[in-house]
């Protein structure tokens, strides 16, 4: 028996006997562990079960770090393969896969196994590349690699680390990227973990090259979400390899390595855990700053710029994640603001983002830090670089509250900045708009004390109060800064004046008011008009804080400056007149009022200016009189010849001349001032003079020019009368006329007028009777559906504006084209007087659009009230509302969407119910002469047909294709783009309803009967390249999915594809063939090339698909057509294609082909 191999039950009994005997012996676990672990994976179940039981008994007491035990286990795993001088009786075969997996679970718990070079290396390679290895073994091998890299000694890692790393990378390259099973994911997970651990233990292995960094970043973008966190940890570990690259201390450090190191830092600061960042953040930050200090500032190469970019990004990210790191010092803020001024333009946006991130770190800083930052921000708010000014302003509005004078002063300086975004932020910071000062949004918005704000301004610019230079080049501030300062001080002053009504006014406040009046008087002759007006208004308010005597003195000085014989320049006169009006008004408003003689003197001065000066100054003087009239009736003019005369009696003749002039601005000011004068007037004669003067405007040419604003104002009045006096009998009688007027105003170019008119329509609907409500709804529906007729004839004069300025460009000489006269001139210059009719047609279409948009405003309001009255009109309204929601004009889109929401409660149900009407309207409009209707219809159809079933589109499918192909060949580009979108949508719909796996076979056949003949006859044969390509693509996709539904059309499809092989061939090849001999090209090679190209075409691919669905019935129609093509086919590709197709057909159907 000793020479015979044991088999079957005998072998099993022997194995069990050995296990039982050894199990009764009290042997150390290290001695019997190899025997038990081998038995636990035996092929015989009793042996494996017994071995597993014995293994469990000794597992807890076995020292897995015993050197001899680990050596025996590695011998069991690897065998003696490759070992020299091994006698045959001591030869050990490598373990099978089951035993290897059992052993690997033990190795992953043994420190000794991790340090048993070279057996460790041999074991890992056996798992990864050994004969008979499995995916499970690879996974366990990578798990053991992680263990080795974590617990292996450095000297051993230096030997085997590079080898194992190359093996890992080779294995990762072997994955296809599409593995979804758990074992593949775990194997990859352990692989990336191993790389991360090796980067921590042997950083020098990666430092000299960037390949590993590139690989990991690519993996982060390509691998699945479940792996990215592991790859991220590996990248963070790899970052430390490049850390010496930051400051150049690493051996062999290159600029590329520095750049990669900084890119890693950005990643770490973005994704690292907070507890890790607290440890390494300060260290890395110092290294970054040291590296930035090492740059000379003159680097122009891309790597240097990228390195700096990543550096500043890293600082910004660290400021977001660890704000407490910067809060106690201002050095980082100073450094970044300096960098913003010193670095090149390409880096400034990155530095700006870092500075904006850094601001949050200083929000809770100590007072001394915030004071230091005030100085820094003020200096940078005046910097040449707009990025520095922007950041300084952002910090000022974010760090400090709304009562902080230094930050508000910075906002004032920034209000005149050349950059629009800086100016807007400055105004938000000053006037506390909703989007401004988010940092204090949870507090009540409060203004600083007037005294404090004014004193701070004077402290920053002491010369301000003494400055007499008013010309722009010598001003201490830009004129816009003066204007903003004054407006803001007015706000502060108003608040304090409100408080002074209930509280005693302090001496500080009075002193500040006196200083302010003195300062403002110096600004009355400023060169900027808005500044002068604001200064005079503020001077009037400030005079309220003065005593009666001081106010009278101020007013007398202003009157004297205007009345003096020596003429002042226009700016000084204008400012003085404005100031007289406001100061006099506030003097009249005092309780008790100041001396009557003083105000009479001021009024007399203003009347003299109106009588003696030109229209611009006369209108300003009238404005001043109007301001006085608002606060009380004007005093009588007293002179030697009469005891008292009313002002308007004196000015009647002069005002009539001024109002009949052509200075529109002056006329507007005078008209407004007449209204103000009548506010507190009780004399009927005085009121009659004012009304006569105002009504005289209706006869002047200027009245027509300012009609647009007047029309809007008239609409406001008419809406107000209807809203608040609608129940009056006189208004009730006029409701039909008011309705017609509102309807006419719906087409006005002014959007405010449109909206007011629409609100009026809504109120008319509420006030009217049943008949009026019906008429109103019908009128609005007709306007929206385009069936209404304009009732009012519009008279065109020379200056009538037909188009808004800029709508149709400029004339050949560069002039504007907007009025009727300019359009006529343009038509005459072009030698085509009949063009004026086309211009009028365009204008009529523009007015129609305006009417629709205006009607939309009113309709959305009436829709909620009308209820059932609108139901009969839905059939007409819904198709047009859908189309208008895709109109190129965004205003029309918004207005129609507003109606849609108000009118339609269930959009899906409404569309389904009226689907046929919608299709009919949109398909008709696809052929409209108006490009906007064609474009909107195509876009609407592309959305409407999404997800539709065959029954819903059966009647319209062919028309949809016709509309799509026609739009794709449109003269206007935007319509062609809409046609392309519609074609894609119809293609998707057609392929779905013709696919027998998605649609019932009967429906698929009917759809194919409609579409395929049209595509073969009209689409593929089209002269339009885009239509032809789209048709071929659809036909090929239909052949793939239609299956047996394609058989009735097989003969037509096959013949069309065969003929297209030649007809759609690149014509350049024919030219080359004709001249082949001249240029030395063999005809046979050229023909082979043409055939090869045709076999790669979509037509040939479609023919291959047709072969698969041929049956006996389709052969009856196909064979005669093929025979005809064999005899009369034109073109090399067609003839070769026919021969090849017949050959493939014979192989497919065999003897079914009859002669």
From TrEMBL:
Occurrences of domain Proteasome component Ecm29 N-terminal (ranges): 5-243, 250-413
Taxonomy, superkingdom: Eukaryota
Cellular localization per UniProt: Cytoplasm
UniProt xrefs under Pfam families: ECM29_N, HEAT_ECM29, HEAT_GCN1
Gene Ontology cellular component annotations, sorted alphabetically: proteasome complex
UniProt cross-references to SUPFAM superfamilies, sorted A to Z: ARM repeat
Major subcellular location class: cytoplasm
Ranges for domain Proteasome adapter and scaffold protein ECM29 HEAT-repeat: 1046-1155
Alphabetized UniProt keyword annotations: Cytoplasm, Proteasome, Repeat
InterPro entries: ARM-like, ARM-type_fold, Ecm29_N, HEAT_ECM29, HEAT_GCN1
Residue ranges annotated for the Stalled ribosome sensor GCN1-like HEAT repeats region domain, each copy included: 860-988
Name listed for the protein in its UniProt record: Proteasome-associated protein ECM29 homolog
Organism per entry: Camelina sativa (False flax)
The encoding gene: LOC104705116
